Amino acid sequence: MLRSQDVEETRAFLGCKGIDLELPSTRTSLDFSIGGAYLSGLWLGYVRYGAPAKVAFSPRSSVWRSCDPAAATGATGNGAASCGVHWIQLPLHGALEASVAGRVLDCGTRCGVVVSPADRAILRSEADSGRLSVSIREDALVMHLAGLLGDAPAAPLRFDPEMAIDGGAGQRLYAILRWAASELDAGGMLADPRVAGEFERFVMSWLLASQPSNYSQALRKRDRPVAPRDVKRAIDYIHANLAEPITLACLVRASGVAGRTLLKHFREVHGVSPMRFVRNLRLQRVREELAAGKVDRVVTSAMRWGFSHPGRFAADYRRRYGESPSATLANGHARK
pTM for the whole thing? Predict the structure, then answer.
């Protein structure tokens, strides 16, 4: 993305992405480099300054922001630029200190830092330091969270800022991300969009499952025993016929049990009724198409997935995802 020894060029580059750079003095010698790869909703890269540096992340900071005057002032119409992001900063070598959410973290071999969209954060690094930087678009992560929960999150997702990397799930995620960075740099299998998409979803699932957040308890409640066979049969029917009319009577016939039994088992396993599950899954399919810019009109996707009432569909969509379907489509076209 950029390699520079020019302080003002580096400051301008970071500034348009909502990141402020401060050096110890005007005579500081800088050797800045940043490089990485963009997936659909995730950016994975490497950052070093070659000098002692202090960088401040604002709630509007995003690696997706374009380096132009409109983006720098927040006037851009690009939805990808205006969307909030979750940052993960993982030290590779050298000292790194993070101040976020009222806490000061000494990040080294012991921990990394997670910065949620609403947080302001300050990172201080030494001259010989370098770090792995991961940025996940808030809308992509919220959509993934909704799929795991079976319903739309009621409050913004916020993670505990301290990520332990000296053991457990955090250490394994750290190793996986380091491998992925080298794989992307070498143009390996992660360059294949199909593999990259699966990897992105894997990282989001791992992060949501392992890093403490305000949804950790809700996600733990979703870890239920294996679904009864009647629920599995109903789910198989739903996936096979999602674009076709589906009624509760259809699901009862497919499941092979009484309606009351299916409702009870479905709520025990998925936390919602069978028909709410169908509606949520259809909303998710529409959002995936809109976010990818695969259609020209919202109504095309909505009708394909069984939404015949535009007003009711738009209201449900906004309630679930916090934005209008037309806004998602505009962002999808902007990213193409």
Answer: 0.68
